[in-house]
Write a structure and sequence with these properties.
heterodimer, A: 286 residues, alpha/beta, D-Maltodextrin-Binding Protein, domain 2, 6-stranded mixed sheet, 5-stranded mixed sheet, 35% helix, globular, B: 617 residues, mainly alpha, Cytochrome Bc1 Complex, Chain D, domain 2, two-stranded parallel sheet, 6 strands, heme binding (chain B)
Chain lengths: 286, 617
């Protein structure tokens, strides 16, 4: 049985139908919540129907509360596959031996960066200028929306560790997502935002012209689709092949139901070395 | 960690003033119904059937395919249903506002009950998606309230903490911070969105009640309701310009280039059309039709709308729900008269009518009309090798089409002894310049005279479905069936198939859609167009024509900056902003009668344009 933590109670029955205790003629996929939970529920209906049709088996999608719940679902077999960011993936890899199958592609690359954004008229020129000012990050378990942007300050010696941030900034918020963090900055609610390099595209074109990039992190592997370690190899291979057909022109429109990447490539395990190092640096990995 | 949603902008605030396509993020079903209710409730007359379905059926633009009623309490449903039944506008507004306020309050309470669990964050997210329904009114009317509430939402999202990942990176919930932020939002909502306290409103808006009741004049930026689509087109039609096909460059034809700019400029319209960034090209995109254009309450289906309702120009409101299918403008110089009812023989007069009466623009200057006409006269049809210059089928057409050609030229008793070809005359581009009552419309009153409609060309019609003046027939097959039935033509299945094949043959065209590949991106197309528009400054600055320079700069500088958001090469985005600023500088200098400075800024623009050109995709 799924425990309460694993499932997002009170949402649509279809997306939340308990996937436990099914034979392997069904595939159970965990989706991570996003800024707009209602949209994700609608998206899951469409994309799981398509996956099921392509794979010739029942595909059930469900939304977990968070990454921890997704990893837990993979660990106990409530989920076979999960969408996941690079940071939670390396933790899941260490904890349960999860395996990456596919990486998302944005703007031609399976990697991206974290950035610190400010308004052009803010007068803020350096990271040091943000001392005592307010910043919004996306989420505490986010590589591009927290850890990597935060590390930019640490690398400049402005403070150490996540604890040092509390003293450095005036107020530091977790806005709930890239879009909320960026809107908060663009609307003048905070002075800066830490978010994905593409998060400016979540603003209106007029807002995009009013902001600028203050700093950019090293490249981070893009979000991945990962599998529980003991999932049948044939199913992993079939799922991977089906997902790669989303790169074909006639299937491209379906990417909008999957967090909107440009496409997918097979995951490269070595690409995550930098993330493992970063997780170790901040005490998330031993 | 949350995910990047999409490669195009998904705006959480309602889409407003911009010329560039901005995809509206899907709305929570109740918020979608509420926003649609405000929009439809401000139309005159109010479309009560659509208002009813806004709540009882899923709304396009909703995040989920469910009706708002499914997420409402019994008493909320009763309140909406009663107001709809009574057709009571104010009661509907109050009940709808209650639905959103109560929904936010309920989600905040659930978040509080579940604080310390991951569920709390989801309830906050759901509350925030409903708050979005009010956000534009608060932002426009109460900056400090907007700021205070925005900070409270940030505090709420932070206060719920995080489970981290299996204990790594966990953050504990902060009950005190949560309560304080919750109280801020709840107090604001209760002071401003408790409907029982509302004063009557002449215009239904999301302006907070404390501001509205103070009598302050608040202008909320115009917004279209969920389900609207005015700028996002699946396939972009290919534009065939006569001079371009002949090898000439638009940059060498300043009047045409300026007309091209005006065709893409919201600045020539007034009121909501201008504020929404609508231009001629919004509906007549690339000389053809934006087949995806749709505004709930104004469009009965995609590809057209009622252009003489209350929304765009209340002065021109005919109070009749009469959707018009947007006609293609391909070959427009050959297809007079203009208007579906053929009311204008002059394209110039018709264009003036569109600007001034339909979209509330100022009277265009003779120069502006000259420019628009010079540009539009360059629109040609897509070449079609299946017909010759006299409109006869060539050997490339199928046998079925050739059999259909014979039927097309056959007189029928049901057509008063005429043939299809009598009106759709093949050697006159398949039209005859006349208007007819073919039974596709009804008289406005018993015994009244039925409106006659212009014979449309059949050239390139394969790409401009649906058909008839009101777009009531979805396919060419259905058009043939309609004539066969309504005119008793007596065609059997095979003959109808042949006649349809003929229509598809004469309606065909080569390469109907723009192909984007590699660096040939939508931004590249916009870049080339916008820099061509700007090239008219080579003429306007020496003429010291400040008025037309201002219009050009307001259009092109804004579009350049906005279109930068669509670039594939995002690394070069900031360069486009620099270029846009240079154009603004040229405009500012000319407005200040400083012509040397204007010329210098324009020269700097051209230099930078040349340097950047390769990176512009």
């Amino acid at each position: 049985m799924l425990n309460r933590r694993n499932l997002l109670a009170g949402l649509a029955a279809l997306a939340l139908s308990a996937p436990a205790a099914l034979a392997q003629d069904a595939l159970k996929i965990a989706f991570i919540p996003q800024e707009n939970p209602e949209k994700l529920l609608g998206d899951i209906d469409v994309i799981t129907a398509w996956m099921g049709e392509q794979m010739g088996l029942s595909v059930q999608g469900f939304i977990t509360f968070d990454h921890a719940a997704a990893v837990e679902a993979l660990r106990n077999g409530d989920a076979d596959i999960s969408f996941m960011g690079a940071l939670p993936f390396v933790l899941a890899e260490a904890q349960i031996g999860a395996e990456p199958l596919l990486s998302e592609v944005y703007k031609g690359a399976p990697s991206y960066a974290g950035r610190i954004f400010v308004r052009r008229d803010s007068g803020i020129e350096t990271l040091a200028d943000l001392q005592g000012r307010d910043i919004a990050f996306a989420d505490p378990v986010s590589e591009s929306g927290y850890l990597y942007p935060l590390d930019l300050f640490v690398e400049q010696g402005l403070f150490t560790g996540t604890d040092g941030a509390a003293d450095f900034f005036g107020n530091s918020f977790f806005a709930g997502g890239y879009q909320q963090a960026m809107q908060a900055m663009a609307n003048g609610l905070v002075d800066a935002a830490g978010a994905s390099q593409y998060a400016d595209l979540l603003l209106s074109p007029e807002q995009q012209a009013e902001i600028r990039v203050l700093a950019e992190s090293v490249q981070i592997p893009s979000h991945a689709i990962i599998a529980r370690p003991d999932l049948d190899a044939g199913i992993k291979a079939q799922f991977t092949e089906v997902m790669l057909t989303l790169n074909e022109a006639e299937n491209n429109h379906l990417l909008a139901y999957l967090y909107g990447p440009d496409g997918y490539v097979r995951a490269d395990l070595a690409a995550y070395d930098g993330v493992r190092d970063m997780a170790t640096k901040y005490g998330l990995l031993e | 960690m949350k995910r990047f949603l999409a490669t195009t902008a998904l705006c959480l605030l309602p889409a407003m003033a911009q010329a560039t396509a901005l995809e509206d993020a899907p709305w929570a079903p109740r918020a979608a119904a509420y926003r649609l209710t405000l929009f439809l409730g401000n139309l005159d007359p109010m479309p009560w059937d659509l208002l009813d379905s806004s709540w009882t059926t899923p709304v396009a633009g909703s995040a989920r395919d469910i009706a708002a009623f499914e997420n409402m309490t019994e008493s909320e449903t009763r309140g909406i249903s009663q107001a709809l039944e009574d057709q009571d506008r104010q009661a509907l507004f109050l009940a709808a506002t209650d639905v959103i306020e109560n929904g936010i309050l309920r989600s905040l309470a659930k978040a509080s009950d579940n604080l310390g669990t991951p569920e709390a964050a989801q309830h906050i997210a759901r509350a925030e998606t409903l708050y979005r329904a009010f956000a534009d009114g608060i932002q426009a009317a109460d900056r400090s309230g907007f700021h205070q509430n925005g900070r409270a939402w940030l505090a709420l999202n932070s206060a719920v903490g995080s489970a981290g990942l299996s204990q790594a990176g966990a953050l504990e919930a902060d009950r005190d911070a949560f309560n304080a932020a919750r109280e801020t939002i709840e107090t604001y909502l209760m002071q401003n969105y408790t409907a029982a306290d509302f004063m009557p409103r002449s215009t239904l808006t999301t302006v907070p009640e404390t501001i509205h009741s103070s009598g302050a004049e608040i202008e909320v930026p115009v917004a279209l309701p969920p389900g609207s689509n005015i700028a996002d087109q699946r396939e972009l039609p290919r534009l065939v310009l006569q001079f371009e096909e002949a090898g000439l460059d638009e940059a060498d034809m300043p009047l045409v280039a300026y007309g091209d700019m005006l065709f893409d400029s919201p600045e020539i319209f007034g009121g909501p059309a201008r504020d929404l960034g609508m231009a001629c090209s919004t509906c007549h995109n690339r000389s053809d039709v934006n087949r995806d254009f749709f505004i709930p309450g104004l469009s009965s289906h995609a590809g057209g709308m009622d252009v003489d309702g209350s929304f765009f120009n209340s002065m021109f409101n005919d109070r009749t729900d009469d959707h018009l299918d947007t006609p293609s403008m391909r070959g427009i110089r050959f297809t007079a008269p203009y208007g579906r009812d053929g009311r204008e023989s002059s394209l110039r007069r018709f264009t003036r009518n569109v600007i001034v009466t339909e979209f509330a623009g100022k009277e265009p200057t003779p120069f502006q009309l000259d420019a628009l006409i010079a540009y539009m006269r360059q629109f040609d049809f897509l070449p079609n090798p299946k017909i010759d210059d006299a409109g006869r089928l060539t050997d490339l057409a199928s046998e079925a089409a050739k059999r259909g050609e014979a039927l097309f030229n056959t007189p029928f008793e049901g057509l008063n002894g005429r043939a299809c070809a009598t009106c759709h005359t093949p050697d006159r581009n398949f039209r005859d310049g006349m208007t007819y009552d073919i039974g596709s419309s009804e008289a406005p009153f018993e015994g009244g005279t039925v409106t006659q409609f212009d014979t449309p060309t059949l050239r390139n019609i394969n790409f401009s479905a649906p058909y008839m003046h009101d777009g009531s027939l979805p396919t060419l097959e259905s058009v043939v069936d309609w004539f066969n039935d309504s005119k008793s033509l007596g065609l059997d299945d095979a003959e109808r198939g042949d006649l349809t094949a003929y229509l598809y043959a004469v309606g065909d065209g080569e390469d109907p859609y723009q192909v984007f590949k590699g660096r040939e991106t939508t931004f590249r197309l916009a870049w080339e167009e916008l820099t061509t528009f700007a090239s008219t400054l080579n003429t306007l600055i020496p003429m010291q024509d400040a008025e037309n320079i201002a219009l050009l700069v307001d259009t092109v500088a804004a579009d350049l900056a906005a279109d930068a958001s669509t670039m594939v090469n995002q690394a070069a985005k900031a360069d486009v902003y620099r270029l846009s600023s240079l154009l603004r500088a040229a405009g500012d200098a000319s407005a200040g009668d400083n012509w040397a400075e204007a010329a210098a800024a324009w020269d700097a623009f051209k230099t930078l344009q040349s340097e950047l050109d390769e990176a512009m995709y």
